[in-house]
Amino acid sequence: MKKILAFLLIAFSLQSHAQFGKGLFGSDPIINLENWDKQRVHWGYYLGFNAYDFKFDYKTAGPDIQVKGTTGFNVGLIGNLRLQEYIDLRFEPGLYYTQRDLYFPGFDNETDALRQVKSTYIHFPLLLKFSALRTGNIRPFLVGGVSTTLNLGSNSKSKDDNLNERFRMKQWTNNYEMGFGVDLYLEYFKFSPSIRGVFGLNDEIIRDEDPNSPWTGNIGTMKTRGVFVNFTFQ
């Protein structure tokens, strides 16, 4: 019975995949949601993944701070305003979870060398979407703009610093973003996978009280870098 069920599941998946491919990439596809992009305003949501990093600039040359990132999770809403046939203005507020482990040089034990930076971001991007000409049920696009981010795990108000194992960052930061993706027009909704890079504009670190701190003393600037992979449903 298990083998029969597995066979039926595989057969159904292959058939669905074939129909999906024919509908999107066939030589004469059925045009789905033909008038969707003519809406002045529409809404949606997205789910996705992120990979955050830091870019460090140092006051003097020396060993680098090593950053080990993890794969985080994104969820958010989309508001889309059609400006003209090929340009849209998008607001995509979302909640982003991530963690970065920082390994500072010059320490003999991991307790002092390691700082775990757990961040919960509320992200507010304002973006312009530049779409290509639609071909069947496919429409590639480029996206770019600016964003501001609230870091709920910044520890910015803490009086403790790295001497008390407390790594502190500024609560607000500004970024610019660039990316690309593709709109896939399905029978009942539009599905849009995309990838986007985010680049921090501000120095985010809050330095320790000691100007010669082994954790923050040699850091000139620390700025966020990240990659978002989002799956949008509209």
From TrEMBL:
InterPro entries: Beta-barrel_OMP_2 (IPR025665). Keywords: Signal. This is PorT family protein. The keyword Signal applies. Residues 1-18 form the signal peptide. Pfam families: OMP_b-brl_2 (PF13568). Residues 39-205 form the Outer membrane protein beta-barrel domain.
